[in-house]
Request: fold
Amino acid sequence: MPDVTLVINGQTVTVPAGTNIVDAARAAGVAIPVFCYHPRLPPVGMCRMCLVEVWTPRVDPATRQVVIGDDGKPVMALMMGKLQPGCVTPVSDGMEVRTATEKVHVAQKGQLEFLLTSHPLDCPVCDKGGECPLQNLTMQFGPSTSRFDYGDKIHFEKPIPLGDLIYLDRERCILCSRCVRFQDELAGDPVLGFDHRGRAWEIISKSDPPFDSKFSGNTTDICPVGALTSADFRFKARVWEVRPTASICPHCPVGCNLSLDMRHDKLMRVMPRENDYVNEIWICDKGRFGMRFIESADRLRHPLIRKGDSLVPAPWDEAIALVAEKLSQIREHAGAASLGGLAGPELPNEDLYLFQKLVRQTLGSPNLDCSTGASGAPEVVDLAATLGVGRGTNLAKSGAGTAVLIMGADPEEEAPLYVLRLRGIVARGGDLTVINPYPTKLERSAARSIRPHAGFEAFAALALVKAVLDQGLIATEFVTARVQGLDELTARLREQSVESLCETAGVSEASVRAAAQAFATAEHAIIIYGRAALAAGEDVLRALTDLALLTGKAGRPGSGVIALLPGGNARGALDMGVHPGAGSRRGMGAREMWAAARDGRLRGMIIAGMDPARDNPAIAAALDALEFVVVQDIFLTETAQRADVVLPTASIAGREGTFTNAERRVQRFRQARIPEYNTPAGWEVMQRIARALPPGRSESVTDARPVAGRRAQRASGATATATMDAPPATWDYAVASDVADEIAATVRGYAGTTYASLGLTRAPEWGRQPDEAVYYDGTSYQNAEGIGIQIAATADDPKTVFALRARVPAPFTRHATRPYLLLAVTRAYDGGEWGRESKLRSRMVPPHVILSVADAAAHSVAPGAIVRLESDAGRIELPVQIEVTLPQGLVLIPDVCGTPLSTIQTGPQTWVAISRVA
Amino acid sequence: MSLLEKSGAEIDAIIARYPQKRSAVLPLLYLAQDEYGYLTDAAMREVATILDLPPTDVFEVAGFYSLLYEQPVGRWVLQVCDDVPCAFCGAEELIATIQERLGITVDQTTADGMFTLQRVKCLADCNHAPLLQANLEYHRDLTTPQQVDQLLAALRRRAESGEKLSISGRYAEQ
Reply:
């Protein structure tokens, strides 16, 4: 857009056309006070706080020419003859804005006096006090007295719950509608509204449950008064007493930047930290309200050693010595390959790196994994490390010209903040296609929603590839330079037609062609896949890979693939080599390890930050069959209860570290408090074990490196070769940054991710004026501690070449006697350990099964009735919920705590029969 | 019996009048409040389901308009204009008379469930002030207590005669 030059308080400013006066003034360093306007929401002009004098050149109505005065300058006229609201008035050339005149001051004073007519002035007991725009603006612009009678103030019952997380104090509300607009326009959960009118106007929520949104906490941040407060923080602290500590959310692969607001060593509240590359200024409620677990009274405090049937507290030295003794004994008797290690994808990179170093290099076993190995857990296929998204991608800037394809994922449950990011792309003119076997909320924001039959997702994905080939949508230059196997692919798909593939998948050919067209012709395109795509199997991922390659949507900023893998640091776990294929010698994955444990080939295990035995009797039995199990965790999980030694560690609040998010951004979190119960960080525990081990036969150095690149190569067919320095065999880390330095020096792609470099990554200009954040943006924190470093994907290197590998899926046949396809689906509020002490407990659902209306009717079951599900693996009974938009023949079981999924799943997709029990 | 089961055809006809379903929210709320006597929580959720609207949106609309009742009302809703021109011509006297005759105050309903009295702003018929609307029927120039007595008696007679009444004013003629 062309630029517009105007004068604000005598200062000449040039801004893009379409900018409103408030933002233009901000650019010039002039603060116009606002309440309803928020730079991330469309303006509405409701509060009238931003009234300013706007002068424009007078135009002669007859000649339509600017009138020139005697001094040779245009004659200026006050727009409409009165003050104008700056937030809804766009700038124009030659405009002159005056924000500090007597007239403006009178308006500002009057407006504040008016807003305060019924305000209770209860700042001393208000949670917002100290960071309240109403307080601040009243001090700066408001009158010191009011002409209104104090006794005439309108009173409401204080406060009422708007949902179980957010309270509304109607006396304090100034009816700016920021919360309503946030829910409607950004979150896409239109659950807030206005009831009544005039003086009786008030915010209501009539969803079931009330204020049913995973983003509700953000409304308390952008509320410019103390009307909305969180149940989690109410009356906990005065905001000037808290010490904000930069942290990163460990709950999902988005990696939202958080601030843990501590008073002394107590967590008072969790707030978002601005990072346009990750979470803008928002976080989801799981991040905000799901951190109380760090202070749970159930936290492990001491090492535990098994004495007969019970675990008894023991000193650290004794526990470590026992672990070292047992592990080395097993290594001596049965060989290093009879040891295995599992580490959870929520652990920081430092822990994961030393975990794999301990297992692979020091103990000499290639058996490592970051998945639980449950029967229903899909094979992790990881395209994000190879194809991107390209380095430099910023979804907050993506919009027109970007097409996003969601394949087999429910971002709202798997990585909630992506909902805001993707809706933002759509709002800025981007194109969104959702392909998923079951309905998701994101569909409502999509240009097209494609619903393949469950089990036939690969045919839909291949139809996209075929459509690209058919419609001549190939990016010739990219394909010529960097892609091999086009002729072979064309030959493989010769017998296929888009029409027949779509028919098999049960989707509309027109939609698939439109999606392929939108994806291929967009300047930038992004694929996001998640649990349902992984469950559907490798053919889906092969097709997605080829779709990105054929259309040249890889290896550059703004394009590529994002994988929504379970856990907050799955990306880091794979990069750090906690994966059976990461070494030169392939080891056993989790599933193979359980089998080996049962038949005695595996004797000892070390498990960190993972609870594979939860709801899984088969894995629990395999654990029991092992000679020695050591578990490192922060709670006494079901797995820990079966261990021989349990080693407690600090939570992310009690140590520092780094996570790598789904877009490969390495981000650092700081230590917020002294370690709880004096527990060490996970990496320190690894070091203690390693140092206590007697020297033994270890793998050669070349064998020990975590070759992220080689695994990636296999997944996508890249011909790039990884180059990496061998890690030193020494264990002398004093602080976390020593581990990070070694990661930077040895793990492929992580060069430059030392703490020093991470701390130096400053936020670029995001339009926020320093120290004026409270006036405009509510109370999120500026990012002063580093925005992280996005490491390169394989495709970012222009020399890498990829092979096309899509293939025609094997004909998929339905089970003869079990006609329903069962999918386990992720729920953000899954009842896991993270939810201890959380206000979200009321939102967590008990185990249940979701049926379509038709299937429920066929078995004459009503909601709440119990049905029996039977598969080749076993049978379970669960209460029924009915989902109106679920396709017939598909059965969903939310993967929440207490669901015996492992009893019934034969794989990620399971054929089941249903019968009614009660 | 749900609204959809009882008045399905009428609802379809109403929805068909608009390019978007959501536009039918006001006529459906009128229908619902005639059906249930007022807009119960369940009735508003029913309308939301029929129109695929978030329930909150329907509650917002119902809360905004003075002709949508979220509390139980009588069979006749008497809405007296008390805006400036009517006030000059005796609106307060009219309200006082009605209160006295019915033994209720503003925003109350008679014990027999026949009348609800409300104050409203401007009914756009100032040249016939003071006036009221009964289920949206206009009754103009009500200057004497006798007129009020006659009006109340006539309204009561009509209700008792079995005439179909609509608190939403769907049968009102201007």
Observations:
- The interface with chain A takes residues 44-45, 54-60, 63-64 of chain B (CB under 8 Å).
- The longest helix of chain B spans residues 145-160.
- The mean pLDDT of chain B is 95.
